[in-house]
From TrEMBL:
PANTHER family: SULFOQUINOVOSYL TRANSFERASE SQD2. It comes from Zunongwangia atlantica 22II14-10F7. Keywords: Transferase. This is Glycosyltransferase. It comes from the Bacteria. Residues 181-341 form the Glycosyl transferase family domain. InterPro entries: Glyco_trans_1, Glycosyltransferase_grp1. GO terms for molecular function: glycosyltransferase activity.
Length: 363
């Protein structure tokens, strides 16, 4: 039976971005299964602030689907609450439960982030978290990105485990066929790929780079997809490190594989993630990945088996794990080989069909 799926998210379908890439491949899988996939996002919902998106998207929904309603609404967490009560099955998808991240940012990880303003403390829970939490309580299906979020939804929102699916993100197929990484005597390149914001652990990277320099270990740093200009990021590092830091604020799809191929080690020191595409790409590229022990990182990485984990927020532990990888090239290579093997079944065509199967069950 052919279904009409309404996908609602404040994003553009874009195979070259993060959330946009996931939605792009979901759309492709739904259409290949014979379903109609209608995206309601940035292309047709014009807003001045993200707080306007749920209301405006719902208004367009009512105008467009007045008589013939979709069979399932596939809604991003921040907009999901607005669509509860439409008598249409709702599948909420989350790339990291926002209430959980908000709580951590204001408690456990508070010292690693900028101070949250009084205005944000008052308004953010109203315009953002309220819709998230309503959807998390009442949606027919929760598509979550890691086991920590699953446990949180069960405890905080009293959800049944049968109503939750942990979906898998994919990797680009050409990454899985990359040639072996050369470990001959050469300076190690440490890669990082994400927007240069504190939640991604940028402060830890800076402190680790200072410690590695003090320990007399020569390394090259390749920071790509940072968004922020090179000059703004470089000034956060000691000047003596500047010659060994390359910053690529943006890159296109053709350049992505080449950037990963320049790296020997990939780091993701985030305090909070959903299920990082950058980490998955690093694993698919056969890199030794060093990442913080939270969220989907601990679902994906087994310490000293297919990567290295460090205690979240501990730059000394991050440094220890990175230096272990630098000093042991054969061990580093083995971890990378195991990482690639562990994501070999994560081609986008495979993981996106898994999402289609889950949505078909609630239609």
């Amino acid at each position: 039976m052919s279904l009409t799926i309404l996908h609602v998210a404040d994003i553009k379908l874009d195979p070259y971005s993060g959330m946009g890439r996931i939605a792009y491949f979901w759309k492709k899988a739904f259409e290949e299964a014979g379903h109609q996939f209608i995206h309601l996002g940035k292309e047709n919902v014009v807003t001045k602030h993200p707080s306007e998106f749920p209301g405006k998207a719902f208004k367009i929904f009512k105008e467009k689907f007045g008589k013939k309603k979709p069979d399932v609404i596939l809604a991003h967490e921040p907009v999901s609450g607005k669509f509860i009560g439409t008598n249409i099955p709702i599948a909420l998808f989350s790339h990291g439960i926002e209430q959980r991240e908000w709580n951590l940012r204001n408690t456990s990880y508070k010292k690693f982030h900028d101070e949250v303003s009084l205005r944000s403390k008052v308004l953010f829970p109203i315009w953002r978290l309220r819709n998230c939490n309503r959807g998390l309580r009442k949606a027919n299906l929760l598509l979550l990105s890691n086991k920590e979020d699953q446990s949180y939804a069960i405890e905080k929102f009293k959800r049944r485990i049968d109503d939750i699916t942990i979906f898998r993100n994919g990797v680009k197929e050409d990454f899985l066929t990359q040639s072996d990484i050369n470990i001959e005597n050469k300076q190690c390149t440490i890669g990082f790929s994400a927007t240069w914001i504190k939640r991604k652990g940028t402060g830890l990277i800076i402190e680790a780079s200072k410690k590695i320099l003090k320990d007399g270990i020569p390394v090259r740093w390749l920071l790509f997809g940072t968004v922020f200009p090179k000059e703004d990021i470089l000034k956060q590092f000691p000047e003596e490190l500047h010659p060994n830091i390359e910053i690529v604020p943006t890159f296109n799809s053709d350049e992505e594989k080449e950037l990963y191929e320049q790296c020997d080690i990939f780091i993701l020191p985030s305090f909070f993630e959903g299920q990082s595409l950058a980490l998955l790409q690093g694993m698919a590229a056969g890199l030794c990945c060093v990442t913080s022990d939270n969220c989907a990182q601990i679902d994906l990485i087994q310490h000293r088996v297919n990567g290295l984990l460090f205690k979240t927020g501990d730059y000394l532990d991050l440094t220890t794990q990175v230096e272990l990888a630098i000093k042991n090239p054969k061990f580093r290579k083995k971890l990378g080989e195991n990482a690639r093997e562990s994501v070999i079944d994560r081609r986008w065509s495979v993981v996106s069909k898994e999402v289609v199967n889950q949505i078909e069950k609630i239609a």
